[in-house]
Amino acid sequence: MMLTNRLQNPAREVPKAIVLSVAAAGVTGVLYLIPILFVLPDIQMLLDVANGQPIGLIFKTVTGSAAGGFGLLFLLLGMSFPISQDGTSTDRVP
Known about the structure:
Number of domains: 2
Strand content: under 5%
Largest sheet: none
Order of helices and strands: HHHH
Number of helices: 4
Distance between the termini: 10 Å
Radius of gyration: 19 Å
């Protein structure tokens, strides 16, 4: 990896960075899931979703409108593309 060439002790720092990034992602995931679990609708209604992806229905139910649900879903999907692009572009920093 090109980015590890610039570290003083890459054998120690890279695994530490990987573990810390996984821990940070876990904390972020829990903080995201806790509010959703408090407002989660009936489980059977979620299991009966035709497309098998209940996140849109959860957002619609929580906000009380289709536009609010679409807005939250758009934000969620809108964040996933730049994050995936960031990972592929920063790997090649000279």
